[in-house]
Amino acid sequence: MDSFKAFRVKQDEDGMVQKGFDTLRKEDLPEGEVVVKVAYSSINYKDALATQENSGVIREFPAVLGIDLSGTVVESSVPSFKEGDEVLAFGFQLGVGHSGGYSEYARVPADWLTALPTGLSLKEAMVFGTAGFTAAQSMHALQHAGVTPESGDILVTGATGGVGSITIAILSKLGYSVVAATRQLDEAGDYLRKLGASSLIHPDEILLDKPRPLAKRRWAGAVENLGGDFVPAILSQINPNGAVALIGNVTGHRFKGTVLPFILRGVQLLGINSVEVSSQLRTELWKLLGGEWKPEQLDELVYEEVPLDTVESALETVLNGGHRQGRYVVKVK
What we know:
By secondary structure, the protein is of the alpha/beta class. The protein has helices at about 45-50, 120-145, 160-175, 190-195, 230-235, 260-265, 280-290, 310-320; strands at about 5-10, 15-25, 35-45, 65, 70-75, 85-90, 105-110, 115, 155, 180, 200, 220-225, 240-245, 270, 300-305, 325-330. Helix 2 (about 120-145) packs across helix 3 and helix 2 (about 120-145) crosses helix 7.
């Protein structure tokens, strides 16, 4: 490990963001108890956004991007991990305030790492990546809110994105009936049905002609990625004692609503935060992703596997909306 390659963003003297590959040495890596030889990472919208001016994503420049990674331990100063262990990492400050996965080597705090669960390869772990873990959190939250397959249909918005796609696959695997909301009804119909969607709707069908706090009951639960006006519209159409897992804000981070869905129908609004998660829950959910929640259609979730050398081009594609469905997996090794 005399030197290695990493994709970084930097600021020049004028505060402009510069991006590209640099050659680093081990001493250039931030503090942490474990050094990992990175095998795979993935591309999330947050990674693409981090390459832009004034995005607010990066906490400190220069920064190695990549908010998740999987690989093999090559050095460890703690007994919980040893050389040769296969591990994964995501969340916390990885790729935004701490050197991330778009690098041949990464050094991370031990408590950010999770042992690769039985049933997953290093590549499969990054087919899931941060998006897959967020989907698993949403599924876990709905289950704990009492939403079962017998409760009724589950709405998934942002259905063709990473979180939406994986959520559909997991829900289908567990016997839920899934309504997938997408603007790509023609282009993505076959893809979403292969993942297990029972039916498809356009997002405009969710919004009400005249907003009201309680509307016709349509869904037992929802995994909601759009934010904005979609949140109160969905809440108003959830069955009594149903739940909405809120994961994103594609159309906006503000919404105007009332307390009536909560106090008259017992609807629960579940906030999903995948950045800081207890070690116990991380381990539990990754075991499920490698076991009973692992979709048979995992390969269908891969939009493209790209080598680290071409990650900049893939990031630009994501940022410009050219990536329409599934997941980009970055092969680092």
